[in-house]
Amino acid sequence: MGSRLFNLLGGGLLLALGATASQNERGKWVHRKWAGADYSCKCYLGDACWPGKQQWDALNATLTGNLRVDVPPGAPCYNLFQGPLGNVTTYNAAQCANVTAGFGTEQYQIELPAAGLWTYFTNDTCRPTTNPSDTCTLGYYPVLVITATTVGHIQAGINFARENNLRLIIRNTGHDFLGRSVGWGSLVINTHSFQQISFTDSWSGAGGYAGSAITVGAGVQAFDALNKLNALTPPKVMVTGECGTVGIAGGLPQGGGHGPLTNQQGFLADTALEFKVITADGVLRTANEKTSSDLFWGLRGGGPATFAVIVEASYKTFADVPSTGITLNINIANTTLFWQAVTAFTGYSNRFVDNGIYVYYELGIGGQILNVQPIVGVGKTAAQLQAIVKPLFSELDALGVPYQTSTKTFATFYDLYMGLFATEGAGSSALTGGWTIGKADIANNTTGIVEAFKTVLANGSLMVGHIWNAGYGLPRSEWSKSAVNPRFRAASNKLITVIPVDGNAPLADKAAAQYKLTYVVDNALKQAAPSGAAYVNEADPFIPNWQEAFWGTNYPALLKLRKKWDPAGVFYAVSTPGTEDWEQIEYGTRLCKRL
Ligand SMILES: Cc1cc2nc3c(=O)[nH]c(=O)nc-3n(C[C@H](O)[C@H](O)[C@H](O)COP(=O)(O)OP(=O)(O)OC[C@H]3O[C@@H](n4cnc5c(N)ncnc54)[C@H](O)[C@@H]3O)c2cc1C
Ligand SMILES: *[C@@H]1O[C@H](CO)[C@@H](O)[C@H](O)[C@H]1NC(C)=O
Ligand SMILES: *[C@@H]1O[C@H](CO)[C@@H](O)[C@H](O)[C@H]1NC(C)=O
Ligand SMILES: *[C@@H]1O[C@H](CO)[C@@H](O)[C@H](O)[C@H]1NC(C)=O
Ligand SMILES: *[C@@H]1O[C@H](CO)[C@@H](O)[C@H](O)[C@H]1NC(C)=O
Ligand SMILES: *[C@@H]1O[C@H](CO)[C@@H](O)[C@H](O)[C@H]1NC(C)=O
Ligand SMILES: *[C@@H]1O[C@H](CO)[C@@H](O)[C@H](O)[C@H]1NC(C)=O
Ligand SMILES: *[C@@H]1O[C@H](CO)[C@@H](O)[C@H](O)[C@H]1NC(C)=O
Ligand SMILES: *[C@@H]1O[C@H](CO)[C@@H](O)[C@H](O)[C@H]1NC(C)=O
């Protein structure tokens, strides 16, 4: 659909791209005042520094024609798209039906050039509608998109953004909860076309590791890698997130990347062997334990879109093993009993991680519901896993808690992953936050933690939980090889908080939701679990003291690295190392440095 829509745009719009061309202004910073302060801003359409048509055409030629003016996915449902380059007639019944049907589906949105799956940060100014005379504007979707298919395309995009001081965004699958893959007025480089996958039985590159490995292009998604690994003889697995559609060489390793194998192997970042990247100077580099080893460390959990654009990643792979999954569903009207059940469940978090058990659960979604699906025993028989969970079930029985449960053993972990994890949707709007509870907190303060859960639900937030410990199976000597917060090695129970709020809600409502997330909901969890940490891919970027919350003792080294590899801020993602002076002023639009 994307390309057909783009073709609706006539030459008039493209001419408008050059309307403000001014050769001697190019690359300049733009001075602005906002809320009484002075800022130096990136260059945006309408500023004198914005590149002219000649420059855009030259870029497009270098890109072999892969530059497009962006149009929001919902535009075919509207008569008129009032874009920043002018008005375009966009209504198309068939395409509107298509986007209406696809908007709630992850893979549909992933395939679009610049969509954000969680729409809050697109500003939701053009959702699919049945009323074509409504207003459709670009919101915070990008102005232009490069669909990169070669390393040269990414280099050209980075160089062009750097030379012209444009807001640059790297977009892979668009899963980002924090809005880091969309942005007002930006130029996007889409990496989804980098789909190559290869395997080796004996890694011979740097790092002293000689076992099996996978090498993937920047756009590869977990399910594709897992399917192909499973087809090998004998089948292999790798660390991915619990969600098969998330990319495995974009934001995931740069944030860390936890999943059902994290107890056994650590984060995806812990399994990294090498990255091929393009740094802010436009140079293609190899980063591993020998070459650019500081960069290699930073790319392993030090923050997405911070040090470089990944074009290819190599990871360790592992033998697959028979595995067992258990589900547990509790739905109780009696509030006292419900919280007794939640307290019992939460109290066993340390027991689970001390036995290498991973758990994915949802709390408070659809009512007084605790939906635990699945409890994963990698390499465990049904009898072994049941023995580990038995004390929990005995306690639930003693309390008189009604529940449904099932146990299923699979020939491989892969079969369990495909069989027990529910598919997730796209297109909803919410603010997300989160906090990771440490083992010491569970041991000391389960009651206080459950009180915090009550505060979270009472203040209109939902919760998604993941029980894992990133230090259980990974040898201690490996821990410091990734830049992730060392506190995750003592983690027990990781929560995502979700406050639904419309992307086009009145500004006061948005501010109130953000306040609630930061100062009520996430703050309650932090107070109850002081030994915890925040996970940069699933957290509130405005959490106070984010440097400490996201990276702990690793932060000073990451800040130095950022100054070395991207001193000018060619890349930017909110609350990543070195961005303390940066702000998106004017209601989350212009990216600027505070002077
Ligand atoms: C339904 C769902 C389930 C999830 N489950 C898990 C989970 O189990 N475990 C977990 O750890 N996380 C999970 N996440 C969070 C996930 O880690 C983040 O959303 C992550 O940022 C997605 O990365 P992406 O590259 O696929 O997405 P994108 O939104 O495209 O990119 C995310 C960030 O990475 C940057 N980026 C993307 N590609 C590159 C590149 N090639 N080079 C440099 N920067 C790049 C982007 O600029 C952006 O800042 C989940 C998210 C969702 C929506
Ligand atoms: C880039 O070139 C292609 C192929 O000629 C063209 O279809 C497209 O409209 C151009 N993009 C821009 C922004 O001019
Ligand atoms: C675009 O359309 C809107 C709504 O009809 C109108 O108000 C606006 O003036 C138009 N803009 C341009 C540049 O034609
Ligand atoms: C939308 O259109 C594309 C291209 O024609 C098609 O492949 C896809 O299945 C359609 N999706 C939906 C949800 O209708
Ligand atoms: C973003 O949405 C808010 C309402 O939530 C609106 O006031 C603002 O004008 C929108 N900005 C853009 C650029 O879409
Ligand atoms: C709710 O559950 C509690 C704890 O089991 C019990 O004491 C109480 O009687 C129950 N209330 C009702 C209305 O059933
Ligand atoms: C309780 O918390 C403190 C401080 O975080 C910690 O030192 C202590 O070990 C914890 N107690 C237990 C039993 O884990
Ligand atoms: C336990 O949690 C409560 C919040 O419910 C918090 O006030 C208290 O400080 C926590 N205690 C410890 C030891 O962390
Ligand atoms: C938020 O939670 C606190 C603590 O449970 C509660 O006192 C307060 O009323 C809640 N606020 C709202 C708006 O629900």
TrEMBL record:
KW Secreted (keyword) present: no
Tree of life domain: Eukaryota
Family membership noted in the UniProt record: Belongs to the oxygen-dependent FAD-linked oxidoreductase family.
The species this protein was found in: Lasiosphaeria miniovina
InterPro entries (alphabetical): BBE, FAD-bd_PCMH, FAD-bd_PCMH-like_sf, FAD-bd_PCMH_sub2, FAD-linked_Oxidoreductases_BP, Oxid_FAD_bind_N
A molecular function GO annotation: FAD binding
Keywords assigned by UniProt, alphabetized: Oxidoreductase, Signal
Annotated signal sequence range: 1-21
Entries under Pfam families matching the protein: BBE (PF08031), FAD_binding_4 (PF01565)
Taxonomic placement: Eukaryota, Fungi, Dikarya, Ascomycota, Pezizomycotina
The protein's name: FAD-binding PCMH-type domain-containing protein
Domain FAD-binding PCMH-type: 138-320
PANTHER family membership: GULONOLACTONE OXIDASE, ISOAMYL ALCOHOL OXIDASE
